[in-house]
Amino acid sequence: MRVRLESIIVDDQAKALKFYTEKLGFKVKTDIPAGGARWITVVPPDEPDGPELLLEPIGMDFAKTFQQALYEKGIPLTMLASDSVQEEYEELKAKGVAFKMPPTQSPGGGPMIAIFDDTCGNYIMMYEIKKK
Q1: What are the residue ranges spanned by the domains of the chain?
Q2: CATH T-level assignment (fold) for domain 5-128
Q3: Between vectors from CA 72 to CA 92 and to CA 18, what angle results, nearest 5°?
């Protein structure tokens, strides 16, 4: 078993697409009509056949309640890996990305992390994975 697709609920697909491509640098893999919305997936530019992130519209009230509760508590909806959280932080800050938490060493020797607002109702945590 492996992860090939992960979804993230967003309050506005067009805004999410703009943020995830223009600010974070992801590339569109799929963008097709799906009912009253779109099936939009993005991938990292260096992994065009890698795991896809589905920008999924909030379709049900309970999903919106869940998203809002996480956001109000400052809890990230999901995490994205980075080779260097500090470098990504600097690049994203320069592009106007708002951070809830700047790069911080995790307690107990865990990875470097940072948390940003995706402008679509979510906090996203970046965590550092050292290249081997």
Answers
A1: 5-128
A2: 2,3-Dihydroxybiphenyl 1,2-Dioxygenase; domain 1 (3.10.180)
A3: 35
